[in-house]
Amino acid sequence: MVYKTVTLIPGDGVGPELTELTVKCIEATGVKIAWEVVDAGEKALKLEGTPLPKKVLDSIRKNKIALKGPITTPVGTGFRSVNVSLRRELDLYSCLRPCRTYPGVRSRYDKIDLVIVRENTEDLYAGIEFEQGKEATAEIIDQIDKLSGSKIRKDSGVSIKPISIFCTERIVKFAFEYAIKNNRKKVTAVHKANIMKYSDGLFLATARKVAERYPDIKFEDRIVDNMCMQLVQKPELYDVLVLPNLYGDIISDLCAGLIGGLGIAPGANFGDDMVLFEPVHGSAPKYKGLNKSNPTAMILSGVLMLRYLGEEAKADKLENAVSEVIREGKTVTYDLKNSPADPGVAGSKEMAAAIISKIKK
Ligand code: NAD
């Protein structure tokens, strides 16, 4: 029996409970996986003094594949995002987030079938920040004033937005290659090049050049604010979207909203030879330990993982089981019911058990 070793990071908040249920669902398909469990986030910070211990990175570098629960990032203060650090340290530059409607979800839309491809390593997420009041910040403000002639208020904090040809080329190439492999028809580049001419402008110009190499896939672009409106009004016009980091983050949640919420939106982060699967949602701390949150997003991230491992039949089995449980609507979490107060609302564990029983049928 061949066991594939996969790094497993339970994460924070609802992460550990959803990870445990996801592992059970994946194993119910009969796939043989040896899980190498490592902690990152709040638990690692408490036990090891850092939210991202070296052994986490080493484990992913060795196994080349990881499944991760969400990890909390303190807002405004505290440690920097472990999620962002993982993606940058391991150069997991392509974030893939398929958004499709499963019949039975609570949504204003049906038949949504969009794919978000988000650049993961640069843009305002690069972590190049200058804190208000610091000496380096005063220096950078002086330099910018001198070099650009623009006036930044002295009491500002500053975040830098780098966008390169190298990173844009590889993310747009990833989007087109994905489109070809998955029989998609169109790639739309999303930007704000009318205002940020040298960062988003470069993204758009580079995307156009890459698109020339793929004459069989239609290419177009949209300004991000217009894109938001278009996605709400006529999402059926779009197929694969490729975006710089920050817009990708925001539009991912918008698209999760189109398909019924964060509870069902899966994701994956690809590097050249490594991949990390994780749901789009965060650690939802208010639901921690309550057996309340929807395990679907994490289970569907497991489906993406099975497909990546070449286990198509097992992936289909798991995805069909999830789809069937959602369609029946009998054993689903609060977010898939018309009202969270519905007496028929199931817990995370019960929903996962229903999925497992469908797999075993
Ligand atoms: P969140 O995604 O954790 O939760 C937002 C809301 O979405 C929740 O209040 C809940 O109503 C709903 N929701 C999320 N997951 C759900 C699920 N599985 N089932 C049902 N409903 C669900 O976003 P947030 O509150 O902005 O962030 C909480 C923490 O998570 C923050 O520290 C943030 O930095 C972190 N975060 C981590 C990741 C990641 O690990 N990749 C991603 C996003 C946010």
In short:
The protein has 361 residues and is of the alpha/beta class. Helix content is 41%, strand content 15%.
Describe what you observe in this structure.
With 361 residues, the protein is α/β, with parallel strands linked by helices. It folds into three domains: 1-102 and 263-361, Isopropylmalate Dehydrogenase (3-Layer(aba) Sandwich); 107-122 and 162-259, Rossmann fold (3-Layer(aba) Sandwich), CATH 3.40.50; 129-160, no CATH class. Helices cover 41% and strands 15% of the residues. The protein is built from twelve helices and twelve strands. The chain has helices spanning 15-28, 42-48, 54-63, 82-89, 135-148, 165-181, 200-211, 224-233, 245-258, 296-308, 312-328, 348-360; strands spanning 4-9, 33-37, 65-68, 94-100, 113-119, 129-130, 158-159, 186-191, 218-223, 240-243, 268-270, 275-277. The chain has a ten-stranded mixed beta sheet, sandwiched between helices. Strand 1, helix 1 (15-28) and strand 2 form a beta-alpha-beta unit. Helix 6 packs across helix 7 (200-211) and helix 11 packs across helix 12 (348-360). It is globular. Bound molecules: nicotinamide-adenine-dinucleotide (NAD). Nicotinamide-adenine-dinucleotide (NAD) binds next to loops. The site of nicotinamide-adenine-dinucleotide has 17 residues, from loops.
